Amino acid sequence: LVMEQQVKKDLFDTARKWVLEAGKTIRDAIDQPLTIDTKSNANDLVTHMDRETEQFFAEKIRAEYPEHFILSEEGYGDELKSDKGIVWIIDPIDGTMNFVHQKRNFAISIGIFQDGIGEIGLVYDVMNDILYAARRGEGAFKNEKKLLPLKKELRLEEAILVLNNYWTTPNNKVEDSKMQELIRKIRGTRSYGSAALELAYVAEGIVDGYITMKLAPWDIAGGMVLVNEVGGITTKADGEPINMLENNTILSCNKEIQETLLTDYIELKQ
Ligand code: 2AM
Ligand code: CA
Ligand code: CA
Ligand code: CA
Known about the structure:
With about 270 residues, the chain is α+β, with helices and mostly antiparallel strands. The chain is about 35% helix and about 25% strand.
C-alpha cells in the first residue's frame, strides 16, 4: 500500500504541530526541577519529562488516529510484533543525558513508517528551535531551508565521522584497532550524544557519517528518513538492512564512503 500524497501531507502537518507543541512545553519547563530515575544502569537516565512527552504523543495519536500503532521508548506505546500498518516510532527525548546535564543537545524524534517504509521523519532540536523534517520522495528540510544532496566524490581523508568513544575503546561489538585506524585516516570525529541529531547532521552534510553499535528503533526512525532524502544511506554496520522492531548496529553515511567503511574499517565481532 502506498500512502496517498494528501494523506501523508496531513499526517506530516499534524505530527509537526504536535512536535513543536511538545518542544515548547519542554523549553518552558527547562529550569524546573527534574525527577530523574535510572533504567538499565546508573547512566541510563529517564526523567518525568521523557515520560510526559511520550504520553502527550500517545494520547494525541490514539485520539486522532486510533488505527495507527505506536513504538516508543518509555512504555506508553504498543507491543509490536510486526511492522505492518502505520507506525509512529517515537523517542520523546533523545539525548536524555544531555537534557539532564546540559539542558541542550537533545531532540524529539518521530519516524512515521508504513509497512516498514519510512514515510515521514521529524527531528526537533528543542532548545535551538530547529526542526529537521522530511517526507519520502520530497526532500529534507532544516526549518524552511531545503537540504542539499550529499557531496559527491567525498574522500575518507576529508570526512568527519560521528563516533562515540565507547566503540573506539575495547568492547565486545566491534574491532577497536580498526576503529582507531579509521580515526587516524579521517579528518575528524564528533560525538553529540543524541543519535537523532547525529543522523540529522549526516543529512545536513555537516558530518559525513555515523557509526554506532547499538541503537533502538526510536533513536533512528526519524533520522533515517532525513538521511534517505538527501541520498545518504542507513544500514546495519555490516551493510544489512535495519530491522525496525529491534536494536541494530548502525552505519549511516554519505554513499561515497559506505563501501570503504564496510570493507576496510568496520569489523564486527561474533
Ligand atoms: P536516549 O537519550 O533516548 O536514551 C547517546 O549516545 C545516544 O544513544 C542517545 O541517542 C541515546 O538515546 C542512545 N542510547 C542511550 N542508551 C542506549 C541504549 N541502552 N540502547 C540504545 N540506545 C541508547
Ligand atoms: Ca533512554
Ligand atoms: Ca534515544
Ligand atoms: Ca529517549
